[in-house]
């Protein structure tokens, strides 16, 4: 995670940049993002923030390729 990145999931140390990158690659559910990044795999308190990022990126970039990971 970059020093200027914003932490989304403290438990798994996953930042906004990583979540955004994965959403743009086609991982558009919390469950899928959990599988590929580990985010939201413990306390679960980051779920709303992850869902908000998914919604933002889905609106900004509606056409995505199929997930490869
Ligand atoms: S903050 Fe993401 S699982 Fe705890």
TrEMBL record:
Residues 7-55 form the BFD-like [2Fe-2S]-binding domain. Gene3D superfamilies: BFD-like [2Fe-2S]-binding domain. It holds the Pfam family Fer2_BFD. InterPro entries: BFD-like_2Fe2S-bd_dom (IPR007419), BFD-like_2Fe2S-bd_dom_sf (IPR041854). This is (2Fe-2S)-binding protein. It comes from Kineosporia corallincola.
């Amino acid at each position: 995670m970059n020093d200027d990145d914003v932490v989304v999931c403290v438990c798994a140390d996953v930042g906004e940049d990583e979540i955004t990158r994965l959403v743009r690659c086609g991982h558009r559910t919390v469950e899928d993002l959990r599988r590929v990044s580990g985010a939201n795999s413990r306390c679960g308190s980051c779920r709303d923030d992850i869902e908000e990022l998914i919604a933002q990126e889905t609106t900004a970039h509606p056409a995505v390729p199929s997930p490869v990971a």
